[in-house]
Amino acid sequence: MKGFFGEMSEELHYSVKIDSFEGPLDLLLHLINRLEIDIYDIPVAEITEQYLIYIHAMKVLQLDIASEYLVMAATLLAIKSKMLLPKQEEELIDENSEFEFEEDPREDLMNRLIEYRKYKNAADDLKHLEEERSQLFTKPPSDLSEFTKDVTIDHSLDVNIYDMLGAFQKLMRRKKLQRPLATRITRQEIPIEKRMEEIIHELKGYRGKKKFTELFPYHDKNHMVVTFLALLELMKKNAVLIEQQNNFSEIYISSMERDFM
């Protein structure tokens, strides 16, 4: 994930670029797998709603959304509109011809997703083979028992940025930040680097796993955005361990006991 964060202005405006997304098709495929949707019969209304929720979360975080994501959003809305139109009746052209059926507006998107999934699965297989090959060495075996440490880290749980965005979106709904309160408050701007140090200090002092929601003690929108961006930066630096038992379950965060600077 290169170029995660831009510079922060004095007015707490962020210019952020996320490169961890592999494109709108990757996001759509993630939603299809997460919602257990049949890729050959995509419910356009549901997938469009979920896609726009993620786009909205990215806008709230003031992320630099690539134009291809917006193009896909427009494509989904166009397909949804076509699906709502009444279907034309089949017309018999002549006695020897068959009925001419109207083309499914989802077909092109479905074919693109199927083709993309093939390449994505092939890339995952190659990555798995690379990881297996990296475990092979030509050096004769050595006795390394004296260097063995009684530390076990479970990396079997896969928490990606989509899961983090989904958790942040649910957190915002829970704290009712979609409707800003009509009030004026005096706030203190917090640099991302300072919030990163606070999170690490809090995790190390807790000496255990903290829930994702417990790292957002304030209802202030700016403080929540800074906290979320700080967590993403700590993930990039492998300074924290993110764990989730099952889809849609609670996300837990703990310190990796290493210097992230």
Question: Would you give an account of this structure?
Answer:
The chain is mainly alpha-helical and 261 residues long. It has two domains: 21-85 and 105-132, no CATH class; 160-261, Orthogonal Bundle (Arc Repressor Mutant, subunit A). The protein is 45% helix and 7% strand. The strands form two sheets. Strands 3-5-4 form a three-stranded antiparallel sheet. Strand 4 (240-244) and strand 5 form a beta hairpin. Helix 1 (24-34) packs across helix 4 (107-133). The radius of gyration is 24 Å and the shape is flat.
Provide the descriptors you would attach to this structure in a database record:
2 domains; disordered N terminus; single chain; 261 residues; flat; mainly alpha; two-stranded antiparallel sheet; 7 helices; Arc Repressor Mutant, subunit A
CATH class of the largest domain: Mainly Alpha
Strand order of the largest sheet: 3-5-4
Mean pLDDT: 76
Low-confidence stretches: 1-20, 89-97
Order of helices and strands: EEHHHHHHEHEE
Indicate the percent of residues in helices.
40-55%
Number of strands: 5
How many DSSP H or I helices? 7
CATH architecture level-2 label of the largest domain: Orthogonal Bundle
- Distance between the terminal alpha carbons, to the nearest Å? 17 Å
What does the radius of gyration come to?
24 Å
The structure class reads: mainly alpha
